[in-house]
């Protein structure tokens, strides 16, 4: 995928996830999520913190993320958008707590993290939104290339049946590939 396409999808994915966060009802914060033992509050904290990790790697920041989750996510999305649009940003290699990544891989990993956790948040919060086809298809392509059985660890369960179902939506195939029940 061309880097401009990836960045456009990342912008859309971050906006989509921010909207999923904004839709969370206050009384749902203790709800179970598709993410193991995490409740929705823990998942929201994790999602915002992981987006901060990507933004910090991009712009060298490290500012404390504060405010409501949706406002923090919107701020992080704006930081990412600005940083990715700097000359040479895609050509750099980035140091993250979990490894070193070339720009295109980091952008795709950022997209995967944002979109899949956006789906998780939507499910736990009762909105039950499907990931838009263009986002789900792009993330699924990256996931197939980056996440094999050896990389699943605690982050992703084994692929479920709908991952291979050609009649399933791209959203259903993606979340099933990552071990979530669509």
From TrEMBL:
<protein>
    <submittedName>
        <fullName>TIGR03086 family metal-binding protein</fullName>
    </submittedName>
</protein>
<dbReference type="InterPro" id="IPR017517">
    <property type="entry name" value="Maleyloyr_isom"/>
</dbReference>
<dbReference type="InterPro" id="IPR017520">
    <property type="entry name" value="CHP03086"/>
</dbReference>
<dbReference type="InterPro" id="IPR024344">
    <property type="entry name" value="MDMPI_metal-binding"/>
</dbReference>
<feature type="domain" description="Mycothiol-dependent maleylpyruvate isomerase metal-binding">
    <location>
        <begin position="17"/>
        <end position="121"/>
    </location>
</feature>
<dbReference type="InterPro" id="IPR034660">
    <property type="entry name" value="DinB/YfiT-like"/>
</dbReference>
<dbReference type="Pfam" id="PF11716">
    <property type="entry name" value="MDMPI_N"/>
</dbReference>
């Amino acid at each position: 995928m061309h880097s401009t396409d990836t960045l456009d999808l990342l912008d859309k994915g971050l906006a989509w996830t921010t909207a999923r966060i904004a839709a969370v009802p206050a009384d749902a914060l203790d709800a179970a999520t598709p993410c193991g033992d995490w409740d929705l509050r823990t998942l929201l904290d994790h999602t915002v913190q992981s987006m901060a990790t990507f933004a910090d790697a991009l712009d060298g920041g490290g500012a404390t993320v504060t405010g409501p989750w949706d406002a923090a996510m919107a701020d992080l999305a704006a930081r990412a958008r600005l940083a990715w649009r700097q000359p040479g940003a895609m050509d750099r290699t980035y140091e993250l707590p979990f490894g070193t990544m070339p720009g295109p891989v980091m952008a795709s990993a950022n997209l995967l993290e944002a979109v899949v956790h956006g789906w998780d948040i939507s499910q736990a919060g009762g909105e039950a939104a499907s990931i838009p086809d263009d986002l789900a298809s792009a993330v699924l392509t990256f996931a197939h290339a980056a996440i094999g059985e050896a990389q699943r660890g605690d982050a992703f369960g084994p692929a479920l049946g709908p991952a291979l179902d050609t009649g399933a939506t791209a959203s259903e195939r993606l979340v099933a590939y990552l071990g979530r029940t669509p």
